Amino acid sequence: MLNDRQLSAWNELELGPVFVSRAGPSSPEAPAAGAADAPSDAPAVAAADAPTGAPAADSWLRIREEVSGCRRCGLCESRRQTVFGSGSERARWMLIGEAPGAEEDARGEPFVGQAGRLLEQMLAAVGLSRADDVFITNVLKCRPPGNRNPEPLEAATCSGYLYRQIELLQPDLILLLGRFAVQSVLKTDASVGGLRRQVHTYRGTGGDIPVVCTYHPAYLLRNLPEKRKSWEDLCLAMDVAARQQALRATRGRG
Predict the structure, then answer these.
(1) Cα(181)–Cα(203) distance, rounded to whole angstroms?
(2) Per the CATH hierarchy, to which homologous superfamily does domain 59-253 belong?
């Protein structure tokens, strides 16, 4: 069952009542039947596909400094500041969005404003703290002018930083937020709707990392009924992360 904090977040998200299937009872903390075991049709993505690999001496400070001074594409001319990411550098979850918006560009932090508040509520609904349990970043580290869609060259130029962040963090789970993040990381043209409810794989140098896809919080603000689908995706992610944690514990005892 949900604890008081999760129940409060559930209500704030306006996810609605708990529905009971005619086939038997279910709870809002479980994904839809078969979701956790659904195979992925998308090919696994290898870290070797990244434009740049992670140098042996990589560190959070090194990558942060490189991002801060980056002038690899034209976005450096219009940005106010780069947006590296936020959260715990020891987090077991990594959340990846599209690109900074106007508020993110002003504050230098990803997912602020209404979309950020909704994301925090979503995380709270599954018992996670933005500050302590996740690391949040974007494919692009600079805001595209007018919040336009990122261009392919911009994504290709900037994604090397993202791959290095993944290799450094080595999370138990990657949660992709929105179409651009999904298509960029999984290297596919498929829609979010076609890729959710599946567990994909990112093949990093430190081992395979499971990937779950869901909708971007900004999209959910415009399409409120889709919140329930994102709740299912979060439940799937929780299940996958729990398995990864158990696997790490087993390896630690071995």
Answers:
(1) 17
(2) Uracil-DNA glycosylase-like domain (3.40.470.10)
Residue type, 245: Q
User: Structural domain boundaries of the chain?
Assistant: 59-253
Q: Which residues contact 65 (CB under 8 A, 6 or more apart)?
A: none
**Residue 246, burial from CB neighbour count under 10 angstroms (0-12, 13-18, 19+):** exposed
Q: How many residues does the chain have?
A: 254
The DSSP code sequence of 59-112 is -HHHHHHHHHT--SSGGGGT-SS----EE-TT-SEEEEES---HHHHHHT-SS-
**pLDDT per position as a tens digit, 77-114:** 999 999 999 999 999 999 999 999 999 999 999 999 89
Give the separation between CA 69 and CA 56, rounded to whole angstroms.
Answer: 20
Q: Which residues of 5-43 are buried (b: 16+ CB within 10 A; e: fewer)?
A: ebeebbeebebeeeeeeeeeeeebbebbeebbeeebebe
What element of type H or E holds 162?
helix 152-169
Residue 47: band (very low, low, confident or very high) from pLDDT cuts 50, 70, 90:
very low
| Residue closest to 205 by CA, chosen among 92, 40, 55 | 55
Q: What is the pLDDT at residue 206?
A: 85
